[in-house]
Amino acid sequence: MADFFGRQGSNLFKDAIDSGLAAITGQRPTWQIQADIDAAKANAKATQDAIDKRKAQAAQNQENPNGTSSAGSSGYSAPQRDLAAEAFYQSGIDQTNNLIGGLGGRENTALQSLMQSYNNTRAKQDVARADNESDYNKQSDRLIRENAQRKSQIDNNVRGNITALQRLLGARGAGSSSASQLVVPQAAAAQGTAQRADATQTFVDNKDATDTNWNRYKREWDQARLDTDADYENNQKDIRSQFAQEGINARQKLQELLTNLSAAKGGDNNAINSAKSVTNTINDLQNKIAELSQRSQSRVISANDPTYQAAATKAMSNETTSTAQNSTQDPNYDATASYYGDVKDLSDEELLKHLYTA
User: Fold this and answer.
1) What gap in Å lies between CA 174 and CA 166, rounded to an integer?
2) Residue 134 · residue 308 · CB < 8 Å
3) CB 60, CB 75: distance < 8 Å
4) Residue pair 117/231 in contact by the 8 Å Cβ criterion
5) How far apart are CA 191 and CA 176, in angstroms?
6) How do residues 266-324 score in pLDDT, each as one tens digit?
7) What are phi and psi of 339, to 5 degrees?
8) Which of 12, 101, 202, 307 is 20 to 30 A from residue 272's alpha carbon, by CA?
9) Cα–Cα distance, 168 to 166 (Å, whole number)
10) What is the pLDDT of residue 338?
11) How far apart are CA 112 and CA 160, in angstroms?
12) 105/69 Cα distance (integer angstroms)
């Protein structure tokens, strides 16, 4: 004990002298410098021991993948993480989330473009129908007008013929005869009736042909409108279906990225080595979504526009039994004896026979 206190006292005395000299010179005491050196050596040794221990654990894990030593004791080594690989996966996850979030907006844009095309097509169909209906109405009005004009002309001709024939009979001294008073009006009226019937039949045939063409056009137009509506509905469904499928694909890619990121953080070499392929995966997904958007926005709703063909109509007959002879070209023309060209030259018997058979 005396020896211990002797050495301890000697050390303390030495440290006191070092401290005094350090105070005079302004330098650190030698014993403090030595203490720092000893602490640094201890830290270095502790660090080296930890490194040696980790190396030993890694070697043991390679020999025994199940994590137990040959003696059955459990073993564990910290995963070897690759921060660059993890960054690749995280970037891919962020980009995929952004792509998924933008699918709804892209789909709405495509549907709005489709609706615009649909509305434009319907508007064109409406304009075409209005134009064709106008043509139909014009043709119908013309037929009605021509029929009225033809019948008015026939009526005027009947009256003119009666007057001309009565004058002709009067010039022959039979102005008060039954032929003049009865046969002439009856013959003229019968002839006028036949001409009116012919005009009516021509009008009916023409109107029927016109209405047939118009009704056929309306049926074709109605079917074209139904086809347009169905085409629009089918395209809507197809766009929604394709965007929904692309969303499923993107979410599958997202799940794969999340799984690989977790594996990379656990030191999975396959996941770490596959990290650089994330760029290609994201580019491929972006391209598919961009192509889908472009393809969807370029869709056009077209229509099978039917053609309205105005019906071919028969012309109203201009052949009339009129007294209207060309006085400038017929030197034998006179106001009281011009009937059917040569009728004025018939004998009384022949004239009566003509009237009764007219």
Assistant:
1) 8
2) no
3) yes
4) no
5) 22
6) 999 999 999 989 999 999 999 999 999 999 999 999 888 899 888 888 887 655 444 33
7) -150, 120
8) 101
9) 5
10) 38
11) 72
12) 57
Burial of 263 (C-beta count, 10 Å sphere; 0-12/13-18/19+)? middle
Separation of alpha carbons 218 and 129, rounded Å:
8
Q: Tell me the average pLDDT across 116-127.
A: 96
What is the rounded CA–CA span in Å between residue 226 and residue 14?
Answer: 112
Give the pLDDT confidence score for residue 170 in this predicted structure.
58
- The answer to whether residues 294 and 108 touch, using CB atoms and an 8 Å cutoff, is no
Q: Could you read off the pLDDT of 193-252 as tens digits, one per residue?
A: 777 778 888 888 999 999 999 999 999 999 999 999 999 999 999 999 999 999 999 999
- Residue 318's pLDDT is what? 59
The Cα–Cα gap between 306 and 148 comes to 33
Looking at residue 66, its pLDDT comes to 45
The torsion of the CA quartet 271, 277, 283, 286, rounded to 10 degrees, works out to: -20
Over residues 99-111, the mean pLDDT reads 96
Query: H/E/C letters for each residue in 208-233?
Result: HHHHHHHHHHHHHHHHHHHHHHHHHH
Question: Which two structure tokens, joined as six digits, stand for 44?
Answer: 């270095």
Instruction: Name the DSSP class of 329.
Output: T
**CB–CB of 166/184 below 8 Å?**
yes
Tokens 């309306």 found at: 218
Q: Name the residue with higher pLDDT: 95 or 75.
A: 95
Per-residue pLDDT at 39 exceeds 50:
yes
Tokens 């045939």 sit at which residue? 205
Name the residue among 212, 209, 204, 214 with its Cα closest to residue 147: 204
Q: Which residue has the tokens 């709405």?
A: 108
DSSP-derived secondary structure letter, 68: B
Mean pLDDT, the chain, rounded, equals 75
What is the Cα–Cα distance from 276 to 84, expressed in whole angstroms?
9
Token couple for 349: 């018997």
